[in-house]
Specification:
Layout: H1 14-18, H2 24-55, E1 64-70, E2 73-79, H3 85-92, E3 111-114, E4 117-120, E5 133-135, H4 137-140, H5 147-154, H6 164-177, H7 183-189, H8 200-220
Parallel strand pairs: 1-5
Antiparallel strand pairs: 1-2, 3-4, 3-5
């Protein structure tokens, strides 16, 4: 029986592979390459799923003509039935006074008047309020600042101002139905509004000051 010739000196033998130097740097380099490859493959997979979802047709009815009476002007907009009144006003009618903050009827920043009554625009569908009178903060000050707006400025009742339009709308409705409100009535009218800057005392003072200014104006008329 012939013997198997030994491997050449320059060929790697089993022992030489086991004894070959393997540095920590080489291990980390290999680990990093594997991680990058896996991440790249995962990113491509996610991108493909997103592209597929975007390519799918939306389910449900498409846009339909919706006629809204906004600040005395009749506007016909092409809206999907799911569009809220707030979205219709801000994104389709150019009325950015009502603010989009919580979208769950907790902050009052989106308040508008619906037939003179304060409502949260984020909680109503635009298609539901056809034929009703919608008033935003832009609609009450076409001839200059109103008494409540002037009083809020004078009493320093705003800081960031993001919640101010909502307060203005609720207090406008209050002063219209109750020309001489008490502080308790002012507080109740503002109970659905959040002011993260903490300007409540100055806003209450502004409402009472506006009431006095309106009373004086009526007396001098």
């Amino acid at each position: 029986m012939s013997r198997v010739p030994p491997p050449p000196e320059d060929s790697p033998s089993g022992n030489s592979l086991l004894n070959a130097p393997f540095s920590r740097r080489a291990f980390l380099r290999g680990l990093g390459t594997t991680a990058v490859t896996a991440a790249t493959m995962g990113a491509h997979s996610v991108a493909a799923e997103i592209a597929q979802l975007n390519a799918e047709q939306p389910r449900g009815p498409g846009a339909v003509p919706v006629t809204l009476l906004i600040n005395g002007e009749r506007r016909t907009l092409q809206l999907e039935p799911r569009v809220t009144l707030l979205e219709a006003l801000r994104l389709h009618a150019g009325q950015t006074g009502p603010k989009e903050v919580c979208e769950r009827a907790t902050c009052g920043a989106c308040t508008v008047l619906l037939d003179g009554v304060p409502v949260y625009a984020c909680m109503m569908l635009a298609i539901e309020v056809q034929g009703r009178e919608i008033t935003t903060v832009e609609g009450i000050s076409r001839d200059g600042l109103t008494a409540i707006q002037q009083a809020i400025i004078k009493e320093d009742g705003l800081q960031c101002g993001y919640c101010t339009p909502g307060f203005v709308m609720s207090l406008t409705a209050l002063l219209k139905r109750t020309p001489h409100p008490t502080e308790a009535e002012v507080r109740k009218a503002c109970s659905g509004h959040l002011c993260r800057c903490g300007s409540y005392p100055r806003i209450f003072a502004a409402a009472l000051a506006a009431s006095r200014a309106l009373a004086a104006s009526r007396a001098n008329a």
